[in-house]
Structures are given as structure tokens and as C-alpha cells.
Amino acid sequence: MPLYEYYCSECNTKFDALRAMNKADDPIPCVKCESLHTSRVISLFAAFSNGTAVVGTGGGCATCGTHACSTCGSH
């Protein structure tokens, strides 16, 4: 199962969850406050190719993909 990252708009918590791909965008309770006001976010990643680091460009929210989002408050 893939590991997905989620954001809670109630308590500003980011958390990870192992979920089946077909459940990735289903509602999931926040691990801190149990709110269902959560959404999946794009996670950063790092990989190495021929000894060179290749870093992902995520960091925004799933709805807009920016680094400063008025929807989820991501900075």
C-alpha cells in the first residue's frame, strides 16, 4: 500500500497514512483532532540517479499546487 500525506484544515496538522490507491482521496479522520476536514497533499520526495540527488517539487496543497495556499494555509 502507498503512503499518502494529508493535511487537516481544523488543526493545521500534516500526517501520513498507508491506504489503498482506490481509497487515497476518501475522507480520513485527522490523527490529532479527528476532524474529517482533511485533504491529501502532494508530498516531497528525493531519489538518486547515477549518484546525483533528484528532488521532487511538491509542497503545495492538492487543490492548487502552490507554496502559499489560501485554501489550506500551506506555506
CATH top level assignment: Mainly Beta
As for the CATH topology, it is: Rubrerythrin, domain 2
SSE-based structural type = mainly beta
Secondary structure: helix percent: under 10%
What is the total tally of β strands?
5
Q: Specify Rg, calculated over alpha carbons.
A: 14 Å
Order of helices and strands: EEEEE
Name the overall outline. Answer: elongated
The appropriate CATH architecture is Single Sheet
Can you describe what's shown?
- It is a single chain.
- This protein has 75 residues and is mainly beta.
- The chain has one domain: Single Sheet (Rubrerythrin, domain 2), CATH 2.20.28.
- Helices cover 0% and strands 32% of the residues.
- The chain has no helices and 5 strands.
- The strands form 2 sheets. A 3-stranded antiparallel beta sheet has the order 2-1-3, with no helix packed on it. Strands 4-5 form a two-stranded antiparallel sheet.
- It is elongated.
- Residues 57-63 have low confidence and may be disordered.
Supply the key terms:
mainly beta; three-stranded antiparallel sheet; two-stranded antiparallel sheet; 0% helix; 32% strand
Topology:
Elements: E1 3-8, E2 13-18, E3 38-41, E4 46-49, E5 52-55
